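new request in #modeling-help
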Amino acid sequence: MAGRVRVLFFASARLAAGGSEMDLPCAEAGMNDEAFWTRLAESHPALKPLRASVRLARNHEFLAAGELIKPGDEIALIPPVSGG
Amino acid sequence: MEMDIQFTDHPIKIVSRPPGLEVGAVLEFLGVVRSVENGAKISAIVYEIYEPMAGKVMRRILEKLGEANPCRRVQIVHRHGTVPVGEASIHVRVESQHRGDGLRLMEEFMNQLKADVPIWKTGSLPC
């Protein structure tokens, strides 16, 4: 059974996505970042060029290498930051 | 180390409270919006913050830095929304027993803020 993840867009990612959030289907077993980006690019091709510079965060933590995204997660696209 | 992290869309008001009796150094840093950004004259910068994550990442950075540079208290306010030229986008106040720990923590915190904390300048307003 597939669940969903909530995806948040900020800064340049929000402009490219044309909105600040969306839901994306996610298998119960989860998906890695590769599968996430593939799925995201299908619905929002304009986000594809950002992949090289954007980091993913899962539930307010940067996604670790090999970590899976699970249904119910909040995934944020984090473009290069510029606070201060 | 006591931490107080806040975000606001209003001008930052600095409320100074007396430091504890064991505190020997009080450091304050204000990041202020300049009138020129990337060579262009501006009137304001617009900031965007992913608040739940920004607070969490700041805490983690401070906890780690505090291990090597023990400080008594850190207070941070970062503004979001439109910040006019001449106004502060961030205020950091560090209280420490010894100035070296406070100075090092302040400097390294600002470096890491600019690398890892999800806060963005999303635009600037022309003059």
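bot summary: Residues 61 and 109 of chain B are 7 Å apart (CA to CA).
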